[in-house]
Amino acid sequence: MPRIELVSPVSLCTWPHLSEPDYNFKPDIGEYNVTLLINKTWKEGVAYVDEINSMVNEWQARCTSDAGGELGVFHSPVKTYKHDDTIWAIKFGMNAKGTEKATGRDWEQRPTLIDVSTQAKKKSPRPFEDAIGRGSHLQVAAQPYMWFSKSKGKMAGVKLQPRKVLVYRCVPPESEGSTLEIAGYTAEETSYVINGEKFDLSEDDKDDVANQEF
What we know:
By secondary structure, the protein is an alpha+beta fold. Helix content is 15%, strand content 38%. It has three helices and 14 strands. The longest helix has 24 residues, at 43-66.
């Protein structure tokens, strides 16, 4: 199991493909992916994005040097959300299957989904098996994958692979709102405030969920 490097705060998600792979852009191998939406004024979110950007900037500088001073294209997992410039969109993705070049061995992988909702918390966290729709509240533990290809126009980038996903509140695909509706939220200095509303795991559990260990 690869070592997990980065753990997000609990955030709203959009366009999740976590229960089943997305085959739209990779029809042969599929991809598990999701995007988290983080308000640019949320201090916990800013700290998380700064951690990602520090790693991304270091890799970009290294690749630029190796490319002789100029890159063709660099792909970062952090972008400004296209529907609202006050929000970051953090992209996660990893291939569902592939083949090892050295051995020719085929492999498959998928993110581990864990139910940590209020109802599950009363018992113990368990695997999450339902479909996850836009607007669900997720925390993602990701392993960065850094790549550089001189042969393809000096392209480079960083990809965040979603190794483990904690589901705090699931919005079923049939109940999900529009992208604009789920993006219209404000974040406060707590790890679990979305749309101006505070979500506690239970009446007796007031811990800061972003500090939980994986």
